[in-house]
Amino acid sequence: MYDQVEKSLVGYPGEGQTVTPSPSGTIEVIGVAWAGDDAVDTVEVSTDGGDTWDEAEFFGPVGGTTGWRQFRYVWDSPAPGEHTIASRATDERGYTQPATVSAPDQQLRGSRTTGSRGTRAATATTPTSPTR
Q1: Structural domain boundaries, residue 99
Q2: Separation between Cα atoms, residue 1 and residue 24, nearest integer Å
Q3: How many CA atoms lie within 13 A of 131 on its CB side?
Q4: What is the pLDDT of residues 66-122, one digit of tens each?
Q5: Which portions of the sequence form the region Disordered (predicted)?
Q6: Using CA atoms, how far apart are residues 15 and 6, in angstroms rounded to an integer?
């Protein structure tokens, strides 16, 4: 029996994008997560390349107990400069999306493989001074 490894990805901001915080000083990070036959329990977002993680919130319709989940994270007062943004999902059984790829051609968990797909990070830049 095989089970798809839990996955998530950040859709906004995108790779190489320059993003300006809102008037309230925040940037909304948005993405999707899924976990094969299991429900996604939590998603965390890192804005510093994986050194620290904060829990995101789910929004939008739920595509069944094993469906895709949309998530958002409100990034408060980001410092100017380049930031590496990543997400990681944890399923209802406690499996957490790994940070690195151990076997790129294997993305199933089961009796013959422990291959996994790591997080996909995006690099985004916040400007030195807000544009108006």
Answers
A1: 2-125
A2: 49
A3: 5
A4: 778 999 999 998 888 999 999 999 999 998 988 765 555 444 444 333 333 455 566
A5: 79-132
A6: 22
Q: Which amino acid is at 95?
A: Y
Residue for token pair 């916040």 = 126
**Measured between alpha carbons, how far is 18 from 38 in angstroms, rounded to an integer?**
35
For residue 50, the cross-strand partners are none
Q: Which residues pair with 62 in a beta bridge?
A: none
pTM: 0.79
Question: Is 130 inside a domain boundary?
Answer: no
* Structural contact between residues 58 and 89, judged by C-beta atoms closer than 8 angstroms: no
Nearest to 24 by CA among 73, 75, 71: 75
**How many structural domains is the chain composed of?**
1
- Cα–Cα distances in angstroms (integers) from residue 90 to residues 34, 118, 125, 132, in the given order: 9, 13, 27, 39
Q: What share of the chain is helix, strand, coil (3-state, %, to 5)?
A: 0, 45, 55
